[in-house]
Design goal:
single chain; 478 residues; alpha/beta; Alkaline Phosphatase, subunit A; 9-stranded mixed sheet; 4-stranded antiparallel sheet; 16% strand
Length: 478
């Protein structure tokens, strides 16, 4: 493959960032380095994540497939708990050996491919590293030291199941009227212990080490043509609430979503989230300087996006892997062109909905030398989809199922988790958005919004727009 004029491609994943939280998109959180890149580059103001959590979104972007068409992601995790455990202990591969990932394709086109992952999902164990010739699982290198007894028990099927049976047996020694408070106190202690063991209260979640490793890597491979993928996890929960408040703040989202505890702690979680964004932005600036100093930006396309957003109380939701309202589905997406170490001024804004799934094809177009940037014409797709493929957080479902008859709070948590295990799809077309829920067992009705007039999705207009909703629903089925 002739390599003249084919740029390096740097794909930076800012994991777990909701667009509407950023000042660039009208929110409160400033990210000045990111904003400076956006001002001179191309900003997509309505970029839509393919899925509602890391795995489906990354698989979709790496394969160019819609999430609902990736069969291995469509299992019911509540019914398959023993093969779908907590994300720290995944046992399933989500990309097959013969799948032609974007990294594999770029490697065949003569690019040196490298993966720098701060995410437990983006590893060899899930198949998401397929096609990368140089792989650094920085999450494992940097965070494995934290994974002590509690997490190992949660992640081990045999240990977890036997511990669940033991806990349930002991519960019969406790009066039923005391079960609620005792269960909640134990759950709070477990959540605090997990946060401590995973280093959740630290500001840095691997970005500093990642940048150091990238600098060393580029220093050894200056003359190569690069396709690099970098995943930063600073915006992911849990959060350094210790920097915001002296008191302990629960980071157990199911306690909030089930309305077992009040929402006062969410404000602190959001402020801690914004602290992480501020820190991450510094590291983005450092990354750009590292790439400039190593000559990678003499001819390069830089893509910065997020795989899903993050909710902080909107629509009664917290964090992600929940229903695809905009706080979870709408993500930041910026592209930039660099020549001779300087960013080429474009200053474009693309306002109609854009699906990040299409990045697969556009990266390959650059790899083939057919284009030197991500085009604004990417927005020609009439419909854009974001699929919620059910709930992932199932580690405690067995215990909740047993305790629900003895504890009203356990019953409430169990029912809430079942509700969010309902599959759902957000369909975008122009200013309209349809949220379609599959199956009727949860008794959840479809929703439709005019995002131009109602960007916060508060006024369900589906009853007044049945014909448009049916057209969007039909497009979803094709």
């Amino acid at each position: 493959m002739k390599s003249v004029n084919r740029p390096n491609v740097i794909f930076v994943m800012l994991d777990t960032i909701s667009a509407d939280h950023l000042k660039l998109y009208g929110g409160n959180a400033p990210m000045k380095n990111f904003e400076n890149i956006a001002m001179r580059g191309t900003t997509y103001t309505n970029a839509i994540a393919p899925g509602t959590y890391t795995l489906p979104s990354h698989v979709s972007m790496f394969l160019g497939k819609r999430v609902r068409n990736i069969k291995m992601l469509l299992k019911n995790p509540v019914k398959n708990q023993k093969t779908s455990t907590d994300p720290l202990f995944l046992k399933n591969k989500y990309i097959k050996d013969n799948d032609r990932t974007v990294a594999m394709q770029m490697s065949h086109l003569g690019y040196k491919t490298s993966l720098f992952s701060n995410n437990p999902f983006i590893t060899e164990s899930t198949g998401l590293s397929t096609g990368f010739s140089y792989i650094r699982n920085i999450f494992i290198e940097n965070k494995l030291k934290y994974h002590k007894t509690t997490l190992r028990i949660i992640g081990n099927d045999f240990s977890r199941e036997n511990l669940t049976k033991l806990a349930y047996g002991i519960s019969y020694l406790i009066p039923k009227e005391s079960m609620d408070n005792m269960y909640l106190n134990l759950r709070k202690k477990l959540n605090r212990k997990v946060c401590n063991e995973t280093g959740a209260y630290a500001l840095d979640q691997g970005a500093e080490l990642t940048n150091k490793i990238i600098g060393e890597y580029l220093g050894r491979s200056f003359r190569d043509r690069h396709f690099m993928f970098v995943n930063y996890m600073e915006a992911h929960e849990g959060y350094p609430t210790n920097l915001i408040a002296d008191k302990e703040v629960s980071q157990d989202r199911w306690m909030y979503v089930s309305n077992i505890i009040d929402n006062s702690g969410i404000k602190i979680l959001k402020k801690a989230y914004e602290k992480r964004l501020e820190y991450l932005d510094v590291k983005i600036g450092e990354l750009i300087e590292i790439m400039k100093n190593n000559g990678i930006l003499d001819n390069a396309v830089v893509i910065m996006a997020s795989d899903h957003g993050q909710a902080f109380g909107e629509h009664g939701q917290l964090y992600h892997n929940l229903f695809p309202y905009n706080e979870i589905s709408k993500v930041p997406f910026v592209t930039a062109r660099y020549l001779n170490g300087k960013q080429v001024k474009e200053g474009q804004k693309i306002e109609n909905p854009v699906g990040l799934k299409s990045l697969y094809n556009h990266i390959l177009e650059i790899g083939y030398g057919k284009m030197r940037e991500i085009p604004g014409s990417e927005t020609n797709n009439e419909y854009v989809f974001s699929d919620h493929t059910g709930m992932l957080d199932v580690w405690d479902m067995s215990l909740l199922r047993r305790l629900r008859h003895r504890s009203k709070n356990a019953d409430l948590l169990y029912k809430t988790k079942l509700r969010y295990n309902t599959f759902a799809t957000a369909v975008y077309k122009g200013r309209y958005k349809l949220i379609h829920y599959y199956g009727s067992e949860r008794n959840i009705k479809d929703e439709m919004y005019n995002l131009q007039n109602d960007p916060k999705e508060m006024d369900n207009i589906i009853d007044k727009n049945r014909n448009i909703a049916l057209q969007m629903l039909y497009a979803n089925r094709n």
